[in-house]
Amino acid sequence: MEATTAQANELERRVDLSIAIADVEKEMEQRLKRMGKNVKMSGFRPGKVPFSIVKQQYGDQARHEVLSEQLDRVFGETVTEKKMRVAGYPRIEPKTSESTSHLEFSAIFEVYPEFTPGDLSTAEVERPVLEVSAAEVDKTLDILRKQRVSYADADRAAAKEDRVVIDFLGKKDGVPFAGGEATDYPFVLGQGMMLPDFENAVEGAKAGESKTFDLTFPADYHAKDLAGQTVQFDITVKQVQAPVLPELDAEFATSMGIADGDVTKMRSEIEANLKREVKRRIEAKLKDQVMEALLKANPITVPTALIDMEVQRLMQAARQDMEQRGMKTKDFPIQPEWFADQAKRRVSLGLILAEVVKTEKLQASPEQVRAMVEETAASYEQPEEVIRWYYAQPQRLQEVEGVAIENNVVAWVLSKAKVTDKAAVFDELMGQKQ
């Protein structure tokens, strides 16, 4: 039972396994005798079926089971003795042998890569820096007000952010085309619901006005028969409404969950929430850079077996997501190659992180986990209930512990890398259009 050298790649190993035929036959016979005590067969009382018939009926099944168990045992003993860390499952192949006393097999498998975490002293990381001020609170309040906008009739020309109601009819070469006609159609100017040239034609018109204009569809327009074509639209503006934003008063504060309508308290809560969100996004950007630095510093070979398993997990997750969205996955066959790069990256990072955590002793402490749970709970109305919810189920704490370990890795990498602080732009950090 000797291990040979690598095969298809540097992680592949081949181990020779030898199983005594006498051991297989002995265990098979014992198993068949145990089975015979419960076998039911027409013409015999339960447990009284002759052994020869039991063996004829179930011999192949018993031999296969015994041989599989023997191979598992011998394989496990061999890789343990040789201190091999097996990745995935072995491929067992029978060998041609002249032995009359033993069955010979080869087990082909991959092992986990062995490596020492690479040097990170030359890695460069930009750390976003942003202090939440009154200006950010005001900007957030403006967004919240716009989300609660109402509209009132306006006796003037339509402008950006106005809500308009129109009738329109599109013609190509003087003939109406499919999808080019609507009555009492509402949309808000500037939100991109219509093509820019269409909105430009509506902007500046008053309620009751009609106009005709030419419009050229983009070359990549989704309707192929209209892509790149010039058509003519007749429109009639039937209503122009100006946006009306709610006042920053007690009523607005109440709608934001402030029971007593205290505007100052509302601003304080928004500021606290913003600080938590800014912190979370900065941590996410740092983590992304750290993971890239770890991958670059540790160009390891990844077991194909682990990548294949991760591909399957990603495919299953994609199917579940599609089904939750009401899509039928049988109508949209998912291809493994779509997930190959993502799977390789995830497996590589998993192996690198595990090695870094082990080597540098970066496991999460109970105090870290507790602090993270309390921070998460702070954004809820009854934090203590949220904390109890986490500690009531070990699996929930394991997820928090995983994040805490990643945070420890990030802190360790930042202590080794070249870190430069860079002022962050609020809108860019929060992913908002300016």
From TrEMBL:
Residues 161-221 form the PPIase FKBP-type domain. It catalyses: [protein]-peptidylproline (omega=180) = [protein]-peptidylproline (omega=0). Keywords: Cell cycle, Cell division, Chaperone, Cytoplasm, Isomerase, Rotamase. It is found in: Cytoplasm. Its main location: cytoplasm. GO terms for biological process: 'de novo' cotranslational protein folding; cell division; protein transport; protein unfolding. Involved in protein export. Acts as a chaperone by maintaining the newly synthesized protein in an open conformation. Functions as a peptidyl-prolyl cis-trans isomerase. Consists of 3 domains; the N-terminus binds the ribosome, the middle domain has PPIase activity, while the C-terminus has intrinsic chaperone activity on its own. InterPro entries: PPIase_dom_sf, PPIase_FKBP_dom, Trig_fac, Trigger_fac_C, Trigger_fac_C_sf, Trigger_fac_ribosome-bd_bac, Trigger_fac_ribosome-bd_sf, Trigger_fact/SurA_dom_sf. The keyword Transmembrane does not apply. Its EC number is 5.2.1.8. Belongs to the FKBP-type PPIase family. Tig subfamily. PANTHER family: TRIGGER FACTOR CHAPERONE AND PEPTIDYL-PROLYL CIS/TRANS ISOMERASE (PTHR30560), TRIGGER FACTOR-LIKE PROTEIN TIG, CHLOROPLASTIC (PTHR30560:SF3). Pfam families: FKBP_C, Trigger_C, Trigger_N. GO terms for molecular function: peptidyl-prolyl cis-trans isomerase activity; protein folding chaperone; ribosome binding. It comes from Dechloromonas denitrificans. The keyword Chloroplast does not apply. This is Trigger factor. It comes from the Bacteria. NCBIfam families: tig. GO terms for cellular component: cytoplasm.
